[in-house]
Amino acid sequence: MNKLLAAALATTALSTGALAQTNDISEFRIGILGGENAQDRMNSFQCLADYTAEELGVETKLFAPADYNGVIQGLLGGTLDMAWMGSSGYAAVYLQDPEAVEPVLVKINLDGSYGYHSIGFARKDSGIASLADMKGKVFGFGDPNSTSGYLIPSIEIPQAGEGITMDSGDYFGEVKFTGGHEQTIVAVANGEIDGGVTWADGQGNWEDGYNSGALRKAVDAGLVDMNDLVEIWRSKPIPEGPVVLRKTLPQEVKAKMTALVDNLYETDPDCAYGVASGDTLGFDPITHDAYVSIVEARKAKSN
């Protein structure tokens, strides 16, 4: 529980001399980033929606767009109030409108860190054990707005070996987007593509899908047996994406929602597990400064 954070936010609001009331909003809308099928995403976040409705006293709605851009556009257009974003998705919003959202919290791993990795993987029986074995084969990205499913591997993989590029027919036989993390995992597991990338904290056991991330969620959902897969590449640590709130929300609403998510791990560990995609220590405060490097990487990639 971060009482100091909640107190600081409340104090800031009071100092403006115009503390907004929660009933200044008629509903609260939470966007859920892609990564698994929409119904599973909705189920994982329903407990948070219930807590939010109780805390704010307004109807709370969940939105699970088909792709990352749906959440990005919802935040930019003001039709979403809150989301847990990937670093690249947050960078996309910031580059288009620095005043749209503010990062407030970040997921914390079991070792106290808040980084994760893009994990390259293939079927174990394919004989693929490294990127070198992927030459001429089909490689899958998740979503063009995903940090671990596109941005970081598209930068780091070409640095991993001479002659590796991310253009179809050059080094890899084909490079394609699958639509999301779950789709990539299932496509590799079913042999539809030879290898791909997804996200994981990289901690804990491979057979569990690590402690948290898309692989862990896929294992929990019974979609994959990790013993059938093998890790073939791992990125450098990536800063975990932030929980963001729409900047123009009433200050009291922002304070209440920050405290609610900040305390979720202590209040309801099972709910926190679903929201955070696995075992974590909950959430801690974060600011824009943690994402400057990702903003720059996204900007450079778009040039």
Write the layout of secondary structure elements.
Layout: H1 3-15, E1 27-32, H2 38-56, E2 59-63, H3 68-76, E3 82-84, H4 87-96, E4 101-107, E5 115-123, E6 138-141, H5 147-156, E7 174-177, H6 181-189, E8 195-200, H7 214-220, E9 229-234, E10 238-239, E11 242-246, H8 251-262, H9 264-267, H10 269-275, E12 283-285, H11 292-302
Parallel strand pairs: 1-2, 1-3, 6-7, 6-8
Antiparallel strand pairs: 3-11, 4-11, 4-12, 5-8, 5-9, 5-10
Signal peptide: 1-20
Keywords: Signal
Protein name: Phosphonate ABC transporter substrate-binding protein
Could you walk me through the main structural features you see in this protein, from its secondary elements to its overall organization?
This is Phosphonate ABC transporter substrate-binding protein. InterPro entries: PhnD, Phosphnate-bd. Keywords: Signal. Pfam families: Phosphonate-bd. Belongs to the phosphate/phosphite/phosphonate binding protein family. The structure is a single chain. Strands 2-1-3-11-4-12 form a 6-stranded mixed β-sheet, sandwiched between helices. Strands 5, 6, 7, 8, 9 and 10 form a 6-stranded mixed β-sheet that branches. It is globular, with a radius of gyration of 19 Å. The protein contains 11 helices and 12 strands. The termini are far apart. Helix 3 packs parallel to helix 4. Helices cover 37% and strands 20% of the residues. It has 303 residues and is an alpha/beta fold. The N terminus is likely disordered. Strand 6, helix 5 and strand 7 form a beta-alpha-beta unit.
